[in-house]
Amino acid sequence: MIKKYLYASCVLIALTPVSLSALAQDNPGARRTAPGTTLNEIIVSSQRREQSAQKVPISVTALPETFLIENGVHSLEDLNGAVPGFVTTNSVNYGAAPLSIRGIGGANGGGNFFADEPVAVYVDGIYITGLTFSTADLFDIQKIEVMRGPQGTLYGRNSTAGALLIKSARPTDEFEGYVRASGSSLTEWQVAGAVSGPLVPDLLKARVAVQYSDRNGWGNNLANGQDVGGSEDISTRLSLEFTPNNDITISTIGEYQHREATPATLQVADLSNTLAASPFVKRPDFNQVLDDNNFSLNSPNFVNSDTYNILLSVNWDLEWATLDSITGYRDYALTGAQDSDGTGLTLFNNNGDLTHKQWTQEVRLTSNDEGRLTWIAGFYYIHSKSTMNPFQIRNFNALFGVGTLAEFRAFQKTNAYALFADATLHVTDRLSLTVGGRYSHEKKDFSNDLRVDILNGGTIPPFAPPPLAGLMFSAGDVFSNPPAFASNDTFHDFSPRVVVDFDVTDDILAYASYTQGFKSGGFNAFGLAPSFGQENIDAVEIGIKSDLADKRLRLNVSAFYYDYKDLQVRLGVPTGGVEIANAANATVKGVEVETTILPFEGLTLTGNLSYLDAEIDNGMLRRVPEGLAFPIGAPIPLETVDVSGNRLSRSPKWQSYISGEYRFPVGNYGTSAFKVSYRYQSNVFFLETNQTQPTFRSGNWHQIDLRLSFMSPDERWEIAVFGQNITDERHITQIAQLGSFPNAAINEPAKWGGQISVNF
User: Going from the N-terminus, what domains does the chain have, and what CATH number goes with each?
Assistant: First the structure.
């Protein structure tokens, strides 16, 4: 089926008229020659208007499409370590790959499909709910901006950690296009292409982009002989831009993505004795199994998804201001299954069908006057419906081996709106004061229907606690069928923002900011209980952005302090499922450094370094007792412990990224480039409890990537060879607590490959 979509998309490109005109400056498919003797200006839209990144008093990193291509970035998962303070993971199943910025990473980690995430993702200005985009293939991207810190005013919906702005390539004034293909030693290949140009000169422009990827999988599933860790994706996008006059631009984007994936997950704990196991005893063969890429998944383990996106935007220049209207619709459907014990044993598994539909509307009015006062004001609304129908959790050892099948059918409707405004007063030619605020109001309606059936059947032994002792069940008997649960809750917040920035010189900007952030509460998709509450953050940041040495050295430094209240924490349920609760307050502080250096023409050195201290101030959490060994799936009693002083999950103390690229002419034949990059991340925890134990944490890791390329003199084509993770460094990127036991997602092994690009 997926190849039919590929064929149809290729025919669509072939039928689109193209010419061999010169590439336009904004063509994302073109690979530019190396910078000369000064650093290029980077334009960002993090304050809802186009500005130089060096003049924006926000910690923001812009990644152009050339960066994504050269670093083999297929999805947001691949950005781990490339941006200071930004932590991503490999998929933990159901299309979920949690994102974290500066130690704030959300409670999901795979499992609660209705909860909001603190890292807000915007695609072409449309807010994407939850984790429905983190594993999606990136294609024909113009730029990604990673904004660190709470975005309480302009991008304020639930973005207590930060926001990612993903902008796809736009239609161009002249006909142009590209085709790009790559393959690697992990039996994966990818082909992408786009054509763009005018359909009606000076009136209507269009762009069509298509990408197909096939990754067979790098892991060996010893249970059935199949590969795991692979995926097959097809993505298509049509963009139209209509300009009836010089004042109005109407744009529309239609997009479809289909994905089939087999995540590679691995049990960390020793489950050799299913009647007396502990989540905190590491399996003795873990490192060997990881090095051999051997997995034992004897139950279905897959995720298939379909996504439809439609966007309509209107930009109207009113002379004194610009009016923007952005309307978006997103339809996301997912079917998946998971071998949640991660072993060759039949202990836990689950499967589910999930759907999410959302409609968003934003209207903004932005001042055009570049005088003493610039401002922006707007209104935002989102309506979404999320359905889990059904989700089944099988606990084969429950009730002393009788086994249970828990089936959940849950629904959540969200209606949220916000009013926001932000104004900057240029007090002098060098000193500016920005004041803004956002009022948010969210209502969530939730319902859940749970039924528990007997899975295996049998007699409960006499030593079981009453009234279960001695009861007999047959497979299919109804064990529990509580009344359907329905509830609703409302969350509201006012988030202010104050920024002072000062141009020390024309090339040095100093700033200080105070921002509040808010993330709404919600309901547990697997629970029959009242909602958990919202969480809030107060953030202070100071920083310097500078271009020095005649614009041959760029040095940006920021320091921040967060006061984080009512932390939403993900808790495992021993019999299956997950729970989210408000449990703690935390303090997060750190320093980040980003630099780019041009020592001489052709050589570009970039790097970043982040230090993070993310600690829980006070809080009490439930956990599995550390000294307890118990039958897997048993309803064991949990203990409540003080977690004060523990680190937040997915918050490495140190992160660093260093890259060097040297571009040099090869006679009159073209230009070659050699690039090497190094990433490092220190240990992280995946639970706020049990941090002295070895099973819910990763070790320090590093990764080295190489790329050698050659481009023709007219930049019409490029060939490249690359190596990623060339030292074959293996590590855990995420651990989900499933049935109290640690189920890990693993990074890819070393791979080598080649790529060819043709621009026309």
Answer: 2-22+45-759 (2.40.170.20)
